[in-house]
Amino acid sequence: MTRLAKVVPAILTEDPSALEIMARQAESFTAYVQFDIMDGRFVPSRSVTSEHIARLHTKLGWEAHLMVEGPEAYFKGFREAGARKAVFHFEATSSPETAVSAARTLGLKVGLAINPETPVAAVQRLVEKVDSVLLLTVQPGFYGSKFIPEVLDKIPELRRLVPAMEIGVDGGIKESNIGHVARAGADVIYVGSAIFLQPQPGESYRRLAALAEEGSRQRQA
Predict the structure, then answer these.
(1) Active site residue 153
(2) d(CA 100, CA 65)
(3) pLDDT band at 146 (very low <50, low <70, confident <90, very high)
(4) Which end of the chain offers a freer environment for a tag, N or C, measured as fewer CB atoms within 10 Å?
(5) Which of these is catalytic: 15, 39, 170, 187?
(6) What is the signed CA dihedral for 199, 167, 131, 133, rounded to 10 degrees?
(7) Angle formed by the axes of helices 16-27 and 201-220, to 10°?
(8) Is residue 131 among the annotated active site residues?
């Protein structure tokens, strides 16, 4: 059976007004999004908070990609705001195992994100304890950062460790490379600027989803 890569829109902004606009746009073409959260410490940029998302009263299902130091302190607020999953960075906490446990206690699904320079070997002990692994193909924290294709080599490494693992790829994805990402074996492809910074976000999303599906089928052929 062909595993088709799905596209999840990623919403990143520090402006509550822009957050509202992007969320309402997303509601017109998808049922699920990722909100990118930044603290100005783990990454240089800052973003909206769980309180801003809670005030949206959105019908979207969503997860939080926490680009923050000490992610454990953020889980409760995002769970209360409606997050289904919290994705935290391996590099952002001194005890990833404690972070996984804290998220589980709150009833959250858990994703483990790793920066481009972090090898799979560093997280091998954790991958069976989480619901997904998110591979960053850019240095995190900005829309429009440069895509690092070598990161895709980590996908087969993860597959060997946990064949059924959901593997996501995030950063620098656009129409010109999304097929390559899907052919590499990604299950979920997160896309920000190539959707929300385009004149017609819904049309951009649908084109990207079609290209991802085509790439998945080419990989399986």
Answers:
(1) no
(2) 14
(3) confident
(4) N
(5) 170
(6) -90
(7) 60
(8) no
